Amino acid sequence: MTVEELADRRLELLVEELTTQLRFNRGVKHGTDYVGDVELWRKAARIAGRRLSIPVRTGVSRDGTEVWASEGP
């Protein structure tokens, strides 16, 4: 497997996880230490929202310790 294929697989697994979480909770929050790559996590959350046909907003707490995704306007 190439590095690109591994990155795509990691993103897809994260999208699947977040799709499930957003389907049942309509909002998700995790510590950035749990997430690791904040930008990848936010990207995955937005993709998950598109798959669920709901707008999803993402963000990072002011102190940078938490990342969140929630159903948006």
Radius of gyration over C-alpha positions, nearest whole angstrom: 12 Å
> Strands of the biggest beta sheet: in what spatial order?
1-3-2
Helical percentage: 55-70%
CA-based shape: globular
Q: What this model shows, in words?
A:
Helix 1 crosses helix 3 (38-52). The protein starts with a helix and ends with a strand. 19% of the residues are buried. The protein is globular and about 40 Å long. It has helices at 3-25, 32-35, 38-52; strands at residues 27-31, 56-60, 66-71. A 3-stranded antiparallel β-sheet has the order 1-3-2. The mean pLDDT is 94. With 73 residues, the protein is α+β, with helices and mostly antiparallel strands. The longest helix has 23 residues, at 3-25.
Give me some keywords for this one:
73 residues; alpha+beta
Give the topology, please.
Blueprint: H1 3-25, E1 27-31, H2 32-35, H3 38-52, E2 56-60, E3 66-71
Offer a concise description of the structure:
The protein is an alpha+beta fold and 73 residues long. Helices cover 58% and strands 22% of the residues.
